[in-house]
Amino acid sequence: MEAERPPASDPGCGRPPRRTAGRDPATAPVSVPAPPQGPAVEFALPREPEPRAADLGAPGAGAAGPPTPSAHIPVPVHRTPPGKARLDEVMAATALTSLSTSPLLLRAPGVTFSTEPCLEPWREALVQPPGSGRGWDPASDQSSPSAPSPPLPPEAAHFLFGESALRKRKSSLQGLFQCLWKRCGKVLSSASGMQRHIRLVHLGRQAELEQSDGEEDFYYTELDSGMDSLTDGLSGLTPGSPTASVPPAFPRLEPPEPLALPSLLRLPALPAPPVLSTTSPSQGCLAPVCLEPQPTPVRACAPALPAKPSANPRKPRGDAKKCRKVYGMDHRDLWCTACRWKKACQRFLD
DNA sequence: GATGCCGGGTT
DNA sequence: AACCCGGCATC
């Protein structure tokens, strides 16, 4: 009986070398109670509602910004002050994206900074040309006359295109439409013109067929996007292939990244990912019409996420005696590993 | 308060 | 993956 158990006379006997230094069962059966130390600010967050979801639409986030609805772009802001740090990241990302997508940078002139970066990600995600399979190849897409861009680090790009440069451009590009077909990049001043251009040049259709049966692929974008509602800009940025961003199994709950893409192009028969939720089916919602500052339409469904269907309310706790009970605190070394780790006992199952 | 163990962090 | 622990539900 007691012979088999290594008496407490030799505490270090079968015990793993590590183990809490201060805990000595042999001498202190009381073990360590609880941390009597003042729990300073531990419970600051008793129940946090999904940081992600919260961030997405947290109305308070934009409180400091201008009163305009478009001003509050829920960029992942956790601890970073609304200042430079974030901007830098964002700008770097923007520059990067711009480099790999199209030579013409753009953005609404009147919008605040925070909105800028958000445009890029979704544009990049959408811009994917149809025929190009999936691999968006930045290298092959450089039909740009003014952006040679050799191997450049993001930072370099950032400084290269510095704000002034960006700004200069955007002001002049405002209201333009750029063809996104590979190696085209044509810029027109009207949406209809652009559609015509695409029809004629890229689709080889007659200009008369205004809107066929919704089979046309108008890959163009408005250079003066005045929208915003782009939520969660960076985190939703899938560097590789936009098409792959479709979650493996989503019945329809909602996209992980609520992207509201307001203006521009209509994707063809592509399995238009959840992203494109708005816009009319046939008229490829052109910029001017859809530019209304919408307070993140998709946000509504964001919180209603999977939320873990199980909610697993913890099992009742079995009646079997567990290692702790059987061996006691003094012989912790005899416990099963699970018990030692405060996991469900593996030895005395219920 | 003791116990069982989940959830999450660290190594 | 192994190890550890905070914290919570239950007894």
Annotation keywords:
single chain; 3-stranded antiparallel beta sheet; 9 helices; disordered N terminus; 350 residues; elongated; mainly alpha; 3 strands; DNA-binding
Number of E strands: 3
Major sheet = 3 strands, antiparallel
Count of separate DSSP helical elements: 9
**Overall form:** elongated
Strand content: under 5%
Helix/sheet category: mainly alpha
Poorly predicted runs of 5 or more residues: 1-87, 89-173, 207-216, 224-311
Based on CA atoms alone, the radius of gyration comes out at 29 Å
Level of helix content? 10-25%
Spatial arrangement of strands, main beta sheet: 2-1-3
| First-last Cα distance | 25 Å
- Give me the strand/helix succession: HHHHHEEHEHHH
Mean pLDDT: 44
Polypeptide structure, described:
With 350 residues, this protein is mainly alpha-helical. It has nine helices and three strands; from the N terminus they run H-H-H-H-H-E-E-H-E-H-H-H. A three-stranded antiparallel β-sheet has the order 2-1-3. Strand 1 and strand 2 form a beta hairpin. It is elongated. Residues 1-87, 89-173, 207-216 and 224-311 have low confidence and may be disordered. It binds a DNA duplex (11 and 11 nucleotides) through helix 9. One of its GO terms (cellular component) is nuclear speck. One of its GO terms (molecular function) is DNA-binding transcription factor activity. It is found in: Nucleus. It comes from Moschus moschiferus (Siberian musk deer). This is SLC2A4 regulator.
